[in-house]
């Protein structure tokens, strides 16, 4: 920057502090044990890490200071933010992706999230999953993850009862997904990501039926 901007000489300010995380990204490890995950995150050649790892017994391992940049999000996008690693805390939960999370894990997770939310004033909507920021590339924390329970406790946004909902005829589903935060470049992947999270179903189907649209409609209304 110094070379390209010709201003006066460097004058250091004294008014600064460290930047704070503003997002929390939740993952499942897709590995078979906590030991394996801890080894992966401490091996230089893996080039991956996370701030926290939560084992099946509920033990939370803190692996990196919250102010530092872990390598957990990878190529990702949320809204116009394309460097999620720089603004987020990554939490990995020991789970292979195809099994329920343990009560101990979820209890520990909720306690940790409450601490982080308070410490860094993280907005409720900014507690999201890895798949949300990388549709088509990632599926974690996958269908077993209880997003509704998290939202009920103040972490993430959930849809509301659709019983009396009438979706307008000109409702644009993809634009609604974009407003929620999704990168809609791959429309099939983003619809599958939406169903995996908000309906807990894995599908090859890339269409939204009337029921799906009602769910999305009530969800996006909270972001307008
Ligand atoms: Zn992940």
How does this structure look, described?
- The protein is of the alpha/beta class and 224 residues long.
- 32% of the residues lie in helices and 9% in strands.
- It has eight helices and five strands.
- The chain has a five-stranded mixed beta sheet with strand order 3-2-4-1-5, with helices on both faces.
- The two termini are 37 Å apart.
- The mean pLDDT is 96.
- It binds zinc ion.
- Zinc ion binds at residues 27, 130, 138, 140.
Detail the topology: elements first, then pairings.
Layout: E1 23-28, H1 34-40, E2 52-54, E3 60-62, H2 84-87, E4 88-93, H3 103-120, E5 127-129, H4 130-133, H5 147-152, H6 173-180, H7 187-198, H8 210-221
Helix pairs in contact: 6-8
Bound molecules: zinc ion.
Zinc ion (ZN) is lined by residues 27, 130, 138, 140.
Q: Could you list the spans in which at least 5 consecutive residues all have pLDDT below 50? A: none
Shape call: globular
C-alpha Rg (nearest Å): 19 Å
Number of strands: 5
Question: What's the N-to-C terminus distance?
Answer: 37 Å
User: What's the pLDDT, averaged over the residues?
Assistant: 96
Structural class: alpha/beta
Q: Beta-sheet strand percentage?
A: 5-15%
How many H/I helical runs? Answer: 8
Order of adjacent strands in the largest pleated sheet? 3-2-4-1-5
In N-to-C order, the SSE pattern is EHEEHEHEHHHHH
Ligand species: zinc ion
Question: What share of the residues lie within helices?
Answer: 25-40%
Largest sheet: 5 strands, mixed
């Amino acid at each position: 920057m110094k070379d390209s901007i010709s201003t006066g000489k460097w004058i250091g300010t004294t008014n600064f502090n460290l930047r704070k995380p503003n997002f929390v990204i939740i993952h499942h490890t897709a590995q078979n044990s906590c030991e394996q995950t801890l080894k992966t995150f401490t091996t230089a050649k893996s080039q991956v890490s996370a701030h926290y790892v939560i084992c099946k017994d509920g033990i939370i391992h803190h692996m990196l200071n919250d102010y530092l940049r872990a390598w957990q999000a990878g190529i990702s996008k949320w809204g116009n933010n394309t460097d999620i690693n720089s603004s987020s805390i990554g939490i990995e939960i020991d789970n292979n992706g195809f099994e329920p999370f343990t009560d101990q894990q979820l209890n520990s997770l909720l306690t940790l999230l409450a601490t982080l939310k308070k410490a860094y004033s993280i907005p409720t909507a900014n507690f999201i999953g890895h798949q949300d920021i990388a549709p088509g590339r990632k599926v974690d924390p996958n269908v077993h993850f209880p997003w509704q329970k998290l939202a009920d406790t103040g972490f993430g946004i959930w849809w509301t009862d659709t019983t009396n909902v009438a979706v307008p005829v000109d409702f644009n589903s993809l634009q609604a997904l974009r407003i929620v935060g999704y990168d809609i470049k791959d429309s099939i992947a983003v619809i599958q990501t939406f169903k995996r999270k908000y309906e807990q179903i894995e599908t090859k189907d890339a269409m939204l039926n009337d029921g799906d649209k009602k769910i999305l409609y009530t969800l996006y209304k909270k972001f307008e």
